[in-house]
């Protein structure tokens, strides 16, 4: 198929477009495109048609590569190794940054510590800077401010005392290995003649000193008196000299003994000399409390980072939880940090009355008021260096509120966030950069969003575009495609049957295109009548009573069995809390007759679990963190493929076994440089790591000897490059292999290459891959499947694959409960449970339950309004 482009010979190439010529990355078929700059551009097409190959593997890769060319020689030393995308020409491409779905799915660091909303949004980094520069250390026991003291600050304190007050300047003497007689001799040589020991004052003249030398001073404090003065007259020079000597001799400590009572200085510690009651004031160049033995660390950004050993709670290691003393399988809140994950020094630092953990417990929508109060208290000299930090915090908070995340707290751990909340917090970090003339490449920004939330993200993207940025979004959602100023559709089908530009232009032209599947979908204004009754009736239910996890408002929910039950509601309404964090662990505990380790049951109860034999949660977490994990290994296809290659005449001639065709085995035929991954990672220190094809095997994973062995004219690396749809006829005569491939096709993964690393899969692809693996087991038990947005990453025209698979499971007597925002799948539901009405504290309630027709008839249900098409105009605005 040919794309019609302007006649380049007739006029100069427009400066307002990215010119792409002859792109052959993956399945792209030598395509040509003119992509307008400073516009919102949607790249659409059926799953596997080449959208990611164009957006990420071509445009983003080239934009990133060219940006690196502007860096220092130390960074550019790797550029000769970086392969250019396979294209004839790419011109006028700006620097590029990207947000992929799979990169936002990593929940934990290498130390196993979970991220938070504050970290994901980038706000936490700037709060650490603010607390380290402007925080006031306050002793949590004594509630007094702590700051490092100097002779000047002690002099200022003396000046604040009333007149006619007698005081003594002292310092504590450390005995070490010296005897008291040696100490007395040393002090006398320095011209000092008075000490306080055991609350008694002693002169170091010869006679008293002789009796004093016989005293036992182990574990006793010796105060050396330097000067005795009165506030009637202030001799600053004399006072400073005494204080400097005290700080010098005692490693940064000085003590002021005030001999008269004070009314307005409550921070002094009662002390006695003989029968006289006085006040003692301790001053330290270190950060220690003058009234108790607590010492504190100097505030710096890493002190407020629970990923850092310098900031993490020493008891729980920054996790916030510890195993209980009764069982290692159950956890409890850390009794030392009380779940804050930070050490006492970090929690002692306050800004405007809050430590960083207390601030992280406030809803995001309340933090701007706190920030405004703090800013107003700053003097001009204090405010000037903090202005950039405060602006960054304010802008990111504003963006989170604009994206509808004002109800979140910054301390919310990532596993408790819904997929829509994760997507928007990641967008906050990416879109807060305030870059201009930049290419943003986004992978399904609609992911996890209810139709009622879409306009929030679209509005933010449009504002970013107004800063002279180019936004390229890979999308299936109709609202985002309608909002785009320019649309590129690839196809017409997946894999080798795709990779062509079938449309490029504005929305109105797309709707009139006769060859565009997306255009046909957008023109389907009239949908089939909504279901008024379930496909098959049921009398069996699972009932969950008094659910209170996260924001759930003590609700009771009934889930039908052997039906397609869909949980709906705007992002943050409590869907994941209900299904993944309450229903699943309780069902697992009851079916396995064990105590759940993941949930504090409290008053929540569950009935009806005896009607199922098994519960399976197919979430969108990664099914393999190792790039060696691929669909072929996950479904045990690869063992059979390796056996087929080992049986070829050439392999037998060379005595090659199936193990030689494994890229995971050290004794196999894998490439020794990349160790069978086909990729090499380059650490660019302060920049994101770069991944490139191995120069030894050119991304093939294997040594050359193994690549000489062919089956039906393809070597094993080429077989792994086949999509499921291509592999199905290729392995004709192999019924076991074809059965497993058919299961991948049935769940809509026909476009997936057999050798694609699992960490690169989207959340929806992970769930469908897990579902295919289950279908492969042919279990006859009554199973309840729990899923979270299984349609993510699917073109609307491909959703029927998933529905067919669900119908197969239901017919076999299984049950399905889904969290879903896709309206086509919601229309197919037998039973809907709609949560809300809003997000966060305003959500967690049941708005309406019933068939799609019953939900659509409910006036306050956002899902009902979406089923009626009420948000279409809003998202286009």
Search tags:
single chain; 877 residues; alpha+beta; seven-stranded antiparallel β-sheet; six-stranded mixed β-sheet; 31 helices; 34 strands; 32% helix; elongated; disordered N terminus; disordered C terminus
Chain-wise SSE layout:
Layout: E1 17-23, E2 31-36, E3 40-45, H1 51-68, H2 73-76, E4 89-91, E5 96-99, H3 117-121, H4 123-134, E6 136-138, E7 145-146, H5 151-159, E8 166-173, H6 180-189, E9 194-197, E10 200-203, H7 206-212, E11 222-230, H8 236-249, E12 253-258, E13 269-273, E14 276-284, E15 321-323, E16 331-333, H9 344-347, E17 349-350, H10 356-360, H11 367-376, H12 380-402, H13 419-431, E18 439-443, H14 454-465, E19 470-474, H15 478-483, E20 486-491, E21 500-505, H16 507-511, H17 517-522, E22 541-547, E23 555-560, E24 564-568, H18 575-592, E25 605-607, E26 614-618, H19 631-634, H20 637-646, H21 649-653, E27 679-682, E28 690-693, H22 704-707, E29 710-711, E30 714-715, H23 716-720, H24 724-730, H25 735-746, H26 763-777, E31 783-788, H27 799-811, E32 815-819, H28 823-827, E33 831-836, E34 845-850, H29 852-856, H30 862-867, H31 872-876
Parallel strand pairs: 3-19, 3-20, 5-18, 18-19, 24-32, 24-33, 26-31, 31-32
Antiparallel strand pairs: 1-2, 1-4, 6-7, 6-17, 8-11, 8-12, 9-10, 9-11, 12-14, 13-14, 15-16, 20-21, 22-23, 22-25, 27-28, 29-30, 33-34
């Amino acid at each position: 198929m040919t794309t019609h482009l302007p006649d380049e010979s007739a006029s100069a190439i427009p400066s307002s477009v990215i010119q792409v010529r002859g792109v052959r990355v993956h399945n792209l078929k030598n395509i040509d495109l003119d992509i307008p700059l400073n516009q919102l551009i949607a790249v659409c097409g059926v799953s596997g048609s080449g959208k990611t190959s164009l957006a990420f593997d071509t445009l983003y890769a080239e934009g990133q590569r060219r940006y690196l060319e502007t860096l220092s020689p130390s960074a550019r030393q790797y550029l000769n190794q970086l392969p250019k995308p396979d294209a004839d020409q790419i011109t006028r491409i700006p620097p590029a940054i990207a947000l992929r779905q799979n990169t936002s799915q990593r929940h934990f660091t290498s130390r196993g510590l979970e991220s938070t909303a504050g970290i994901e949004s980038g706000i936490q980094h700037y709060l650490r800077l603010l607390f380290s520069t402007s925080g006031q250390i306050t002793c949590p026991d004594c509630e007094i401010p702590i700051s490092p003291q100097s002779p000047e600050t002690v002099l200022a304190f003396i000046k604040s005392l009333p007149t006619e007050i007698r005081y003594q300047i002292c310092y504590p003497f450390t005995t070490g290995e010296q005897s008291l007689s040696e100490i007395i001799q040393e002090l006398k040589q320095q011209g000092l003649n008075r000490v306080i020991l055991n609350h008694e004052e002693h002169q170091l003249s010869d006679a008293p000193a002789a009796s004093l030398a016989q005293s036992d001073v182990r574990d006793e404090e010796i105060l050396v008196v330097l000067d005795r003065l009165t506030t009637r007259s202030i001799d600053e020079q004399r006072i400073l000299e005494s204080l400097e000597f005290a700080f010098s001799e005692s490693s940064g400590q000085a003590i002021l003994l005030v001999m008269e009572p004070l009314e307005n200085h409550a921070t002094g510690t009662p002390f006695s000399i003989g029968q006289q009651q006085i006040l003692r004031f301790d001053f330290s160049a270190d950060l220690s409390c003058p009234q108790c033995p607590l010492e504190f660390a100097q505030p710096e950004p890493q002190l407020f980072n629970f990923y850092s050993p310098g900031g993490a709670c020493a008891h729980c290691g920054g996790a916030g939880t510890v195993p209980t003393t009764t069982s290692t399988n159950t956890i409890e809140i850390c009794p030392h940090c009380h779940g804050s994950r930070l050490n006492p020094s970090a929690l002692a630092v306050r800004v405007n009355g809050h430590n960083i953990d207390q601030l992280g417990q406030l809803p995001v929508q309340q933090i701007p008021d706190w920030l405004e109060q703090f800013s107003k208290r700053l003097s001009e000299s204090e405010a000037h260096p903090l202005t950039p930090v405060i602006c960054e915090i304010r802008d990111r908070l504003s963006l989170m509120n604009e994206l509808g995340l004002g109800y979140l707290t910054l301390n919310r751990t990532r596993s408790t966030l819904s997929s829509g909340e994760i997507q928007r917090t990641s967008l906050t970090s990416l879109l807060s950069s305030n870059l201009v003339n930049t290419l943003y490449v986004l992978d399904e920004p609609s992911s996890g969003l209810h139709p009622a939330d879409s306009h929030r993200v679209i509005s933010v993207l449009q504002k970013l575009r107004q800063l002279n940025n180019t936004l390229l979004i890979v999308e299936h959602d109709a609202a985002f495609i309608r909002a785009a100023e320019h649309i590129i559709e690839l196809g017409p089908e997946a894999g080798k049957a795709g990779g062509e530009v079938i449309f490029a232009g504005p929305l109105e032209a797309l709707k009139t295109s006769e060859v565009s599947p997306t255009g046909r979908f957008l023109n389907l204004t009239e949908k089939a009548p909504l279901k008024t009754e379930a496909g098959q009736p049921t009398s069996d239910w699972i009932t969950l009573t008094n659910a209170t996890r996260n924001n759930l408002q003590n609700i009771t929910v009934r889930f039908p069995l052997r039906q397609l039950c869909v949980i709906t509601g705007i992002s943050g309404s409590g869907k994941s809390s209900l299904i993944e964090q309450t229903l699943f662990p309780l069902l697992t505990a009851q079916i396995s007759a064990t105590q759940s380790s993941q949930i504090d049951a409290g008053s929540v109860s569950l009935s009806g679990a005896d009607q199922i034999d098994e519960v399976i949660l197919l979430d969108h977490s990664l099914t393999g963190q190792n790039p060696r994990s691929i669909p072929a290994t996950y479904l045990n296809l690869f063992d059979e493929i390796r056996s087929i290659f080992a049986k070829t005449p050439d392999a037998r001639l060379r005595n090659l076994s199936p193990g030689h065709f494994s890229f995971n085995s050290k004794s196999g035929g894998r490439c020794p440089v990349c160790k069978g991954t086909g990729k090499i990672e380059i650490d660019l220190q302060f920049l994101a790591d770069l991944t490139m094809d191995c120069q030894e095997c050119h991304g093939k994973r294997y040594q050359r000897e193994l690549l000489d062995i062919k089956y039906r004219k393809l070597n094993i690396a080429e077989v792994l490059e086949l999509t499921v749809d291509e592999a199905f006829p290729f392995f004709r005569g192999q019924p076991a292999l074809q059965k497993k491939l058919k299961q991948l096709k049935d769940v809509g993964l026909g476009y997936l290459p057999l050798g694609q690393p699992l960490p690169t899969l989207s959340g929806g692809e992970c769930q469908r891959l897990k579902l295919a693996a289950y279908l492969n087991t042919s279990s006859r038990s009554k199973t309840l499947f729990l899923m979270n947005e299984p349609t993510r990453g699917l073109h609307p025209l491909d959703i029927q694959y998933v529905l067919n698979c669900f119908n197969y499971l239901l017919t076999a007597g299984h049950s399905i409960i889904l969290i879903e925002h896709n309206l086509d799948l919601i229309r197919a539901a037998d039973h809907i449970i709609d949560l809300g009405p809003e997000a966060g504290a305003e959500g967690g309630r049941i708005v309406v339950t019933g068939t799609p027709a019953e939900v659509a008839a409910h006036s306050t249900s956002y899902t009902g309004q979406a089923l009626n098409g009420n948000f279409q105009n809003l998202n286009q605005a």
